[in-house]
Design brief:
Blueprint lengths: L1 H119 L1
Length: 121
């Protein structure tokens, strides 16, 4: 009977050792899976960051182009308005010039008589 007890005791010890070894293998396997998951998560995070940076650069470039186009339109509109104002001022000035010339032309005979009268005496 002692032999059976001794064998049973050794059998139990072997079972415990096997269970411990299996547990260690499962722990190692879980660690390896966790490492893979961490690497995959890091790769995904890097990809998301890279895509976000690319998208930000695209948005920045689009915004610059749009701002440039809008500023060109504003400048063109301002230049058009300025030309209209210049044309209006030119017309008004020409009207004033024509009026002054007309008055001067109509006063020419009287002015000539006045000057001749002053010279002669």
């Amino acid at each position: 009977m002692r032999i059976y007890v001794c064998l049973f005791s050794q059998f139990v010890e072997l079972e415990v050792v096997l269970l411990v070894n299996q547990s260690i293998e499962k722990i190692k396997q879980a660690e390896n899976e966790a490492k893979v998951m961490v690497k995959e998560a890091q790769a995904e995070a890097d990809k998301i960051i890279r895509e976000a940076r690319e998208k930000a650069e695209k948005i920045k470039g689009d915004a610059k182009r749009e701002a440039s186009e809008k500023s060109k339109l504003v400048i063109k509109s301002a230049e058009t308005e300025a030309r209209k104002e210049i044309d209006l001022l030119k017309k008004e000035n020409q009207t004033e010039i024509d009026g002054i010339r007309s008055v001067a032309k109509s006063n020419r005979p009287n002015s000539a008589s006045f000057i001749v009268g002053r010279i002669i005496g």
